[in-house]
Amino acid sequence: MKKDRCIAIVLAAGKGKRMGSETQKQYLLLKGKPMIYYSLDTFQKCELIDEIILVAGAGDEEYCQREIVEKYRFSKVVSVIPGGRERYHSVANGLHAITACDYVFIHDGARPFLTRDIIERSYVSVKKYQACVVGMRVKDTIKVVDSQSFAVDTPDRSALWLIQTPQVFSYDLIRKAYDLLLEQGDEACVTDDAMVAELLLGTKVRLVEGSYQNIKVTTPEDLKIAEVFCPQA
Ligand code: CTP
Ligand code: MG
Question: Which residues form a coiled coil (predicted)?
Answer without folding.
Answer: none
